[in-house]
Amino acid sequence: MRAELLAVGDELLYGDIVNGNAAWLGRQLADVGVDVATSTVVGDEIETIATAIRAALARADAVVLTGGLGPTQDDLTREGIAAAAGVGLRRNDFLEAELRRRFQAMGRDGSALPAMNFRQAELPDGAQPLPNTAGSAPGVRMEIGAGVVYAMPGVPFEMTAMFTASVLPDLLRRAGQPAVVVHRVLRTAGMWESVVAEALAAEVDRLAPIGNPRIAFLASGGQTRVRITARARDRAEAEALIAPVETAARAALGAGVYGGDEDSLESVVLGLLGARGATLAVAESLTGGLLAAALTDVPGASAVLRGGVVSYATEVKASALGVDADLLATEGAVSARTAAAMAAGVRERLGADYGLSTTGVAGPTEQEGKPVGTVHLGLAGPDGTITRSVLLPGDRPRVRTNAAVAALDLLRRTLAGLPDGDLVTGGERTSGGSRD
Amino acid sequence: MRAELLAVGDELLYGDIVNGNAAWLGRQLADVGVDVATSTVVGDEIETIATAIRAALARADAVVLTGGLGPTQDDLTREGIAAAAGVGLRRNDFLEAELRRRFQAMGRDGSALPAMNFRQAELPDGAQPLPNTAGSAPGVRMEIGAGVVYAMPGVPFEMTAMFTASVLPDLLRRAGQPAVVVHRVLRTAGMWESVVAEALAAEVDRLAPIGNPRIAFLASGGQTRVRITARARDRAEAEALIAPVETAARAALGAGVYGGDEDSLESVVLGLLGARGATLAVAESLTGGLLAAALTDVPGASAVLRGGVVSYATEVKASALGVDADLLATEGAVSARTAAAMAAGVRERLGADYGLSTTGVAGPTEQEGKPVGTVHLGLAGPDGTITRSVLLPGDRPRVRTNAAVAALDLLRRTLAGLPDGDLVTGGERTSGGSRD
What we know:
The structure is a homodimer of 436-residue chains.
Chain A: E1 2-8, H1 10-13, H2 20-31, E2 35-42, H3 46-59, E3 62-66, H4 77-85, E4 89-91, H5 93-105, E5 122-124, E6 128-130, E7 139-144, E8 147-152, H6 156-174, E9 180-189, H7 193-207, E10 214-220, E11 223-232, H8 235-253, E12 257-259, H9 265-275, E13 280-284, H10 290-296, E14 305-311, H11 314-319, H12 325-331, H13 336-349, E15 354-360, E16 374-381, E17 384-391, H14 396-416, E18 424-431
Parallel strand pairs in A: 1-2, 1-3, 3-8, 13-14, 13-15
Antiparallel strand pairs in A: 4-5, 6-7, 7-8, 9-11, 9-12, 10-11, 15-16, 16-17, 17-18
């Protein structure tokens, strides 16, 4: 089975928007083993669209098209498909009734529907409409010769819903392939991407030798996601294919896995704290607010997070967090003992159950003779204070982002009683006291 | 002049990366009036590449190609161009010498250069190399019939440098068009995009009626950029075209313009403070660390920023910032007077010349009976404390981001003695005292 992607729209050619639809569709089709050899973008012109469709069908069995299905005069995909097939357009009674119903549902007179909107009720003669569950423009399915064209709206959330519900099942049926695709995502923190890939290499060969399920690694923002994709005749069969791979992957990745597709590291950490009725405060130096900003991005964070202190100037570490001035003078602002004192200080001053801290060298230049990427983390809680040290690669933004991830992961692993991650290069328990 | 874009790489077809190069090139070509009717992506296959080049040259005068120029065996663009032209590959002595020189410059024996790397010294017979100032893979310029193919590396920063230095001037020469393109960017804050566009509408018609210079608006992250693009025979002529438009645009936008292309709002604010030897501290509620994180993203921020307090819990506003508990009880955490007290409190407690604060409702639900988007800003300085109130549209992330931008813009306008921005719905001077 070979497919081609075709996107219609001047705004794509002019670079006003990036063709993210093609990347998403490319991943979906690769996941189910459909070969995509060419992806094309053309402007809003009937003959150009028709020529591109004919050229694609000369090379492939199916054309997956996005864009140009709206009601305005520069939406010409319907006309382009009709021209490629050598047929005319025909008003579809069902679609027309549906349009009137939608218009009336908005409290307006159905007989006053602007004539332009009726264009969305027209289909190339012989085509079938594809339902749009997320918007008004129906999709189009049109057989031309031995091939097929699927046209979907360019709006990403309308397109993805229509592809999953209508296009993919039909495409797989035509290919004689199973009709359901299920993804499972495992999210990891505290592991290098290469370590994640190596940990799973043997399992990939053993459990997914023929590419179903298929395993992919996606690294971004200091975290690595593992995506397991299975295709099967129905959901139960797909789940049965995924289950042993997921079990093996979780075993191989161990404490590195913090959650699934819907989770974020911040939401998992807030959930662990919320479940035990505990509160958190953060003290940041090199992350400079990133840690607090990530936590407060989660709606409802206020139930757990009391707040934070960004102690950027060294004197602020002493005045706002109570870090001992002698300690700062002898060990420096970038040290494990300073991280411990920051965590204990913010825990006490903001009245939280846990205090989490970061200090280090974000760059671009070294500081106190310590190299860029040096990071010390502190975690103070009811049972005392621990520190962890990591050496992070990359430029200033990457060091800062990864330091915030490492701090959240330290808190997650500590709360869950899990061992340290791969990135840790040193650490100790620096005090055993409690706040009260 | 008609051009087509062609990108080579399996990773684009599979959706592992998005084709951002096509969007960037589309904007560049639209800016200089070169028409792009089709943009294509093909995989790493010689015959597919050759077929795509031939098809593009049947429709257009030039093909702008990216990707497939590296040293490995799946980099097949050179072979694809040769096949399209019906010629062989030929080792280029100049490129070979250059490769050996680079290899030796890395401290390695030039005679031990891996054979695979020599592929980068091969060109289709009759082609000219295009210099790569940012990487090792040279570009290729090849005339085929009456058309021309420009092939550039897929790595964005290598591609953009090569396009600007070599491809665009050659393309414009062939088109009989001026050979230099100059951009000027004005960055604005505190203005709605529609207001920016309206303010310039008359100037666009008056000063740029024939599309040279061309004016574009780009809105993101709560800010709007205005890009003025001129094409001319040389840089001086382009600058002379831009100058009156830039002067008129600056006059029309007034205090909204905070800087040019290389600036960020954070760096401009830190620069204004640094120039007068002043320091800053921030107190954040709804922005939850975003303001501090934006400021500390700028290298060297530590010379100005003493630090910040994220006072997420209401009690922390009292305990860490000294906001009066009665005030919090009567007016609420989301109020102009609380913003003023937060700013004055963080200024005093962190020993800074200026204190800047945010409080408000980020959503998803209302708070204290105040709607999502309600934001109060406070700014305490040597001459007293002022507040500003804004009502921001959008969801939780947008309200938070725009609130941080509004706070920085308040500080910028106050330091520079400029009037308030469009977004301000209320404000007052709440106290006249100084810290000491």
